[in-house]
C-alpha cells in the first residue's frame, strides 16, 4: 500500500507528539495493528486516542476497562435473564434471540462505516487472561456469535490504541501482535511546547518560573508520586486564575518554603513534608 | 545487516520473535521509514521492543550494530580530565550502581584504572574483557554489559559531534537487570497474584435458583453467590537499616506492584528483630512509633503476615531483654515474635540470605525455630513455598504450632536446617 493513501498523524493543535510517538502511531495505522501505549500516569495516554480520532476525522469508540471487565463484554453479551423473564410473561420478542444480544464496543467499532479509532483504556486493570481472550479478535478483526451463528467481521480495520499503567504484565502472545510505545516524561523544550499549546497567552516569565519550579519539585528525591504533565497544566491554570506574579515562584527569594498552590503538584502529605524538609535544609546550608 | 541486528538483539536479552521481525520488514516495505536513521530507530523500536525495560538494551545493540563502524576510540586522548569522567559517570549511573562502585574501591580507583589503561592502550579495540573498546565486558567502553562500566560515549572533549539518540541511553533506569534481583520480580509478581486471587467472581448459584424457582411455582427466582474478590489481607513487616535496604526496596516494589490485588496491605518497619514498637515512616522512625501491641490488636486473625529480613544479628538481640542495639527493650524480641505468631497463625519469614548460610548464623536458627521452620528464601521457589504456607486454611496445624511454641523460648538443640 503506498504511503500517500494513508493519512498520517502529526500531533494536533491540542496535543504535542514527539517524533518517536508519531512514528509508532503511523506504523500502527499503516500496518493495521494495535498500538500499546505505556507511560507514567498523566502523560496523555488516553488523550492520544481522542486526538488521533480528531485529527484524522474518525469516529472514536472508547472501551474503559475495569477490574471486573471480561473480553466477551467487548464483543457482545447475551442477556439470558431478560429473555427468560420475557418468556414467562409471554412477550412476543422472545422468539428472536437477536433481541437479547447486546453489542459491545468492539462490535460497534467493527460495524463503523468508516475506519474508526478504538481505545481500549487501561487494559492492565482487567484479569490476566483478558488480553489473551482478545488475540483472535485483534488479529483477524472478526469474531463468531454462537447464539445466532453469525460471523462478525470488521468493515474497516479499526485503529486500535491500548493503554496500560503497568499494573500487570501483559502476555507475550498479546505483545507480539502490538506495536509498543513508552511515553517518556517530556523534557523541558517539549514541556514548553505542551504548555504553549494549552495556554497560548501565558506570560513568558511566568512560564519560565513555573517550569523551573516544576522540574525542581520533580527532581526531589524520594517523592511517592512525582507530578506529571497533567498536574503541571492544572497548576498553571491555578496560577493564571490567581494572577500570581512570576517573581513569587522563584525559590531563591521566596519567604514561603514551598511553591504557591503546591496542592496541584504534590498529592500526598508525606511528599509535602519531604519537600518542606529539603527546602528547609537547603536554606540553612546557605 | 537486519538479520544480524535481530540476532544481536536476542543475544542481548531483548525477547524478539520472528513475527515482530517480519512486522518490521513489512513496515519498511510500506516505506514508513526511508528518510532518516532516526526514523528507522523509532520504527524498529516500536516494532521490536514491547517493554520499556528493554529500551536500554535495544539502544545499546542499535548503537553497536549500526554505528559500530564509526566508533573510533583512537582519537580519544589518553589525557582524560577527571571532572569530565566524573560528570559523565554521574549522568550515566544510577544511585544503586554508584553504591556498588563505591563498594569496589570507589570512584577514584575506577578512574585511576581507566586512566592507566588509556595510557597502556594504543589502538582501537573491540570485544574482550579488559581493554577499552566496544562490545566487551570490561568496565570501560561502549555497548558492554558490565554494570560497573564507564560508558565512553562519542561526545568526547574536543570532538563536537552530537550524541545520537540511541547513544543517550535515557531508558537505562527501566532496564530490569540493572537492579539486583529485579529480573525475578515479574515472575514473583505472578506468584503473588495467584496468591491474591482467591475465589471466583460473581456467579449464579444454580442449585438455589432451581430450588427457589420450583418453590415459586415455576416463576424465575434468581440467586447469585456474592462476589468473593481479592479477599487476601496482608501485613508486611520489613527489616530496614544496614545491609537489608536493597532487599527491602525490592520487596516494597514487589508488594506495592501487587497492591491492587490485595484487599488490605499494610507495611511496618522494624530493625533486626521485632520489639514493642514498629514504624511506618523511615524518615521519622524515632518520633512516629506504633506500638506492636496495637498492631496485634487492630488486625484480625485472618490477616497473613510476611516478615522480610536477613535474620542476621547477635542472638542476644532476640533472646535477652534489653538486647536491642538501638534502645532498651523491656521484653525480649523472642517474646514479641511469639506474640505475633500467636496472633496471626498464617505467618512466614522471607530471608534474602542464601539458605546454605542459615545454619551457620545462630540468630537465623533461633528465629527459624521460633517460627517453626516457616522461614523461606527470598527467591521464586521460596516465594512459592511461603505462599503455599500462607494459603492454608485458618484452623490448621499452624495455629496449634504457634500456640505450642509460646511455652518454650530458645534453648535446646536446633533441628537440622536443610
List keywords for this structure.
heterodimer; A: 286 residues; alpha/beta; Rossmann fold; 2 domains; five-stranded parallel beta sheet; two-stranded antiparallel ribbon; 9 strands; 14% strand; elongated; disordered N terminus; B: 418 residues; two-stranded parallel sheet; 17 helices; 11 strands; flat; disordered C terminus
Descriptive overview:
The complex is a heterodimer of chains A (286) and B (418). Chain A is 42% helix and 14% strand. Chain A has 286 residues and is of the alpha/beta class. Chain A has 2 domains: 146 residues, 3-Layer(aba) Sandwich (Rossmann fold); 98 residues. Chain A has a 5-stranded parallel beta sheet with strand order 2-5-8-1-9, with helices on both faces. In chain A, a hairpin with a 4-residue loop joins strand 6 and strand 7. Chain A is elongated and about 80 Å long. The N and C termini of chain A lie far apart (64 Å). The N terminus of chain A is likely disordered. Chain B is built from 17 helices and 11 strands. In chain B, strand 5, helix 11 and strand 6 form a beta-alpha-beta unit. A 5-stranded parallel beta sheet of chain B has the order 6-5-9-10-11, covered by helices on one side. Helix content of chain B is 41%, strand content 10%. With 418 residues, chain B is of the alpha/beta class. Chain B has 3 domains: 66 residues; 67 residues, no CATH class; 173 residues, Rossmann fold (3-Layer(aba) Sandwich). In chain B, helix 9 crosses helix 11 and helix 9 runs parallel beside helix 16. The interface between A and B is large, with 40 and 40 residues.
The CATH topology of the largest domain in chain B: Rossmann fold
Topology as H/E string of chain A? HEHEHEHEHEHHEEEHEHHHH
Strand order of the largest sheet of chain B: 6-5-9-10-11
Q: So how many helices of chain A?
A: 12
How many domains make up the 3D coordinates of chain A? 2
Low-confidence regions of chain B: 69-85, 121-163, 172-183, 396-418
Distance between the termini of chain B: 52 Å
What spatial order of strands do you see in the largest sheet of chain A?
A: 2-5-8-1-9
Amino acid at each position: 500500500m503506498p504511503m500517500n493513501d494513508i493519512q498520517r498523524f502529526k500531533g494536533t493543535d491540542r496535543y504535542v507528539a514527539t517524533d518517536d510517538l508519531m512514528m509508532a502511531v503511523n506504523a500502527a495505522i499503516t500496518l493495521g495493528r494495535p498500538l500499546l501505549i505505556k507511560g507514567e500516569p498523566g502523560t496523555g495516554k488516553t488523550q492520544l486516542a481522542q486526538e488521533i480520532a480528531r485529527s484524522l476525522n474518525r469516529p472514536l469508540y472508547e472501551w474503559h476497562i475495569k477490574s471486573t471487565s471480561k473480553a466477551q463484554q467487548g464483543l457482545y453479551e447475551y442477556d439470558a435473564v431478560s429473555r427468560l423473564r420475557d418468556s414467562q410473561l409471554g412477550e412476543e420478542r422472545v422468539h428472536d434471540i437477536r433481541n437479547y444480544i447486546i453489542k459491545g464496543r468492539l462490535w460497534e467499532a467493527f460495524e463503523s462505516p468508516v475506519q474508526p479509532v478504538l481505545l481500549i483504556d487501561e487494559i492492565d486493570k482487567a484479569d490476566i487472561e483478558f488480553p489473551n481472550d482478545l488475540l483472535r479478535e485483534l488479529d483477524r478483526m472478526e469474531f463468531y456469535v454462537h447464539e445466532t451463528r453469525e460471523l462478525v467481521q470488521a468493515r474497516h480495520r479499526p485503529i486500535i490504541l491500548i493503554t496500560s499503567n503497568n499494573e500487570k504484565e501483559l502476555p507475550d502472545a498479546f505483545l507480539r501482535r502490538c506495536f509498543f510505545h513508552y511515553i517518556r516524561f517530556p523534557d523541558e523544550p517539549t514541556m514548553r511546547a505542551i504548555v504553549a499549546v494549552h495556554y497560548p497567552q501565558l506570560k513568558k516569565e511566568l512560564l519560565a518560573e513555573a517550569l523551573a519550579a516544576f522540574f525542581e519539585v520533580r527532581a526531589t528525591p524520594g517523592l511517592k508520586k512525582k507530578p506529571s504533565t497533567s498536574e503541571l497544566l492544572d497548576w498553571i491554570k491555578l496560577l493564571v486564575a490567581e494572577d500570581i506574579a512570576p517573581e513569587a515562584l522563584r525559590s531563591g527569594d521566596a519567604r514561603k518554603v514551598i511553591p504557591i498552590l503546591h496542592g496541584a503538584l504534590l498529592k500526598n502529605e508525606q511528599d509535602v513534608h519531604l519537600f518542606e524538609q529539603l527546602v528547609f535544609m537547603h536554606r540553612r546550608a546557605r | 545487516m537486519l538479520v544480524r541486528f535481530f540476532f544481536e538483539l536476542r543475544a542481548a536479552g531483548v525477547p524478539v520473535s520472528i513475527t515482530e521481525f517480519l512486522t518490521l520488514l513489512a513496515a519498511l516495505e510500506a516505506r514508513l521509514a526511508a528518510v532518516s536513521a532516526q526514523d528507522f530507530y523509532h520504527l524498529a523500536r516500536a516494532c521490536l521492543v514491547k517493554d520499556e525495560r528493554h529500551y536500554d538494551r535495544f539502544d545499546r545493540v542499535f548503537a553497536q550494530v549500526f554505528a559500530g563502524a564509526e566508533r573510533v576510540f583512537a582519537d580519544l586522548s589518553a589525557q582524560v580530565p577527571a571532572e569530565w569522567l566524573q560528570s559523565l559517570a554521574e549522568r550515566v549511573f544510577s544511585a544503586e550502581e554508584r553504591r556498588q562502585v563505591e563498594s569496589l574501591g570507589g570512584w577514584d580507583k575506577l578512574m585511576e584504572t581507566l586512566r592507566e589503561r588509556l595510557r597502556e592502550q594504543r589502538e582501537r579495540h573491540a570485544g574482550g574483557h579488559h581493554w577499552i573498546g566496544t562490545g566487551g565486558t570490561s568496565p570501560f567502553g561502549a555497548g558492554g554489559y558490565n554494570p560497573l562500566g564507564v560508558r565512553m560515549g562519542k561526545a568526547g572533549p574536543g570532538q563536537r559531534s552530537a550524541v545520537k539518540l540511541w547513544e543517550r541511553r535515557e531508558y537505562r533506569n527501566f532496564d530490569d537487570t540493572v537492579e539486583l534481583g529485579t529480573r525475578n520480580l515479574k515472575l514473583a509478581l505472578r506468584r503473588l497474584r495467584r496468591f491474591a486471587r482467591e475465589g471466583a467472581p460473581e456467579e449464579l448459584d444454580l442449585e438455589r435458583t432451581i430450588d427457589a424457582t420450583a418453590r415459586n411455582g415455576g416463576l424465575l427466582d434468581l440467586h447469585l453467590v456474592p462476589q468473593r474478590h481479592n479477599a487476601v489481607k496482608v501485613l508486611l513487616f520489613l527489616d530496614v537499616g544496614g545491609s537489608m535496604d536493597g532487599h527491602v526496596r525490592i520487596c516494597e516494589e514487589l508488594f506495592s506492584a501487587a497492591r491492587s490485588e490485595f484487599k488490605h496491605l499494610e507495611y511496618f518497619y522494624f530493625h533486626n528483630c521485632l520489639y514493642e514498637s514498629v514504624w511506618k515512616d523511615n524518615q521519622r522512625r524515632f518520633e512516629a512509633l506504633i506500638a506492636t501491641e496495637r498492631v496485634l490488636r487492630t488486625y484480625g486473625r485472618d490477616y497473613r503476615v510476611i516478615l522480610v529480613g536477613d535474620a542476621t544479628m547477635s542472638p542476644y538481640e532476640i533472646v535477652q531483654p534489653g538486647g536491642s542495639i538501638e534502645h532498651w527493650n523491656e521484653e525480649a524480641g523472642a517474646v514479641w515474635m511469639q506474640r505475633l505468631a500467636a496472633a496471626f497463625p498464617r505467618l512466614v519469614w522471607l530471608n534474602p540470605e542464601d539458605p546454605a548460610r542459615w545454619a551457620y548464623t545462630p540468630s537465623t536458627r533461633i528465629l527459624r525455630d521460633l517460627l517453626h521452620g516457616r522461614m523461606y528464601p527470598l527467591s521464586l521457589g521460596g516465594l512459592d513455598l511461603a505462599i503455599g504456607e500462607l494459603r492454608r486454611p485458618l484452623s490448621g496445624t499452624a495455629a496449634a504450632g504457634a500456640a505450642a511454641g509460646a511455652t518454650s523460648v530458645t534453648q535446646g538443640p536446633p533441628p537440622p536446617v536443610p
